[in-house]
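Local shape tokens

___
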Amino acid sequence: MVESAAKKIGQSRIIGRQALKSWDDLVLYCRTAMAEKQIEEFRALFLDRQNQLIADEILSTGTVDYTPIYPREVMKRALTLSASAMIIVHNHPSGDPTPSKADIQMTKQLDEISKSLGIVLHDHLIIARGSEYSFKSEGLL
């Protein structure tokens, strides 16, 4: 029940608002939703032209150290929602937010595909219990 209440509070700070207006609100929202998960989860925050959150969807769940990500399915959903931009997020249950080679490769692939479709990939966040990793902040996007 406490987890559910915390999630609602985090969501109330971002749903219907500019997802990129406050970095802290975005991180809190993602951390509340997935930092304590015991398996990897991949989600996408789909945004409209004003960076308002259209949808937050879990697109894949996996194991303790892997979740399959299919760029085709991510882009299919973005097009269905008429999203202009997106932020992709996944968690690392290990507590270490450092991206794997596969994380980096998939992000580059999604960035290339999204650009060709006119959709902006604002960031890829990796959420861990005590920290996060931003591909944009680290110069990988």
